[in-house]
Amino acid sequence: MIEIIKSNIVNAPNVPISNAVLANGTIYTVQIPRDPLTFSPSGEGDIELQATRVFQQLQHVLECGGSNLNHVAQMTIYLVNKDDAQKMNDVYKTFFTKPPYPNRATVVVKELLGPNCLIEIVVHAVKS
Helix axis angle, 47-64 relative to 85-95, nearest 10°? Predict the structure, then answer.
């Protein structure tokens, strides 16, 4: 059975996507930078601001699903600019502070769908 994880982050009603779901004890979610007040997609700011927003949102969604950052098993990070990897890693280290760290891949892409978005993450976490 697949359950929708309810959080403050929802997609536009005309887009048939759930922001996060729980299936067999695993949480699946994708996060893009969003305005912290409206939660609408927002590509404002540099990679540090956008990465901070993405990881804060991830933390929120996991908590809504009965988990936390310590239970992230796998993550794929998509960056538009290869040169942003170090600054993104600096932000990442403030959220993931102790082992076991998530298994992770970082991929550089031409562009993302969100206007001016520099980062997008795909995450699999286990429920605590």
Answer: 30
Residue range 107-127, pLDDT digits in tens = 999 999 988 999 999 999 999
| Two structure tokens written together for 39 | 């939660």
CATH number of residue 113's parent domain:
3.30.1330.40
How many distinct structural domains can be found in the chain? 1
Residues 15-52 have pLDDT tens digits of 899 999 999 999 999 999 998 888 788 889 999 999 99
68: domain range?
Answer: 2-126
Cα distances from 66 to residues 44, 45, 54, 107, in angstroms, run: 30, 30, 18, 28
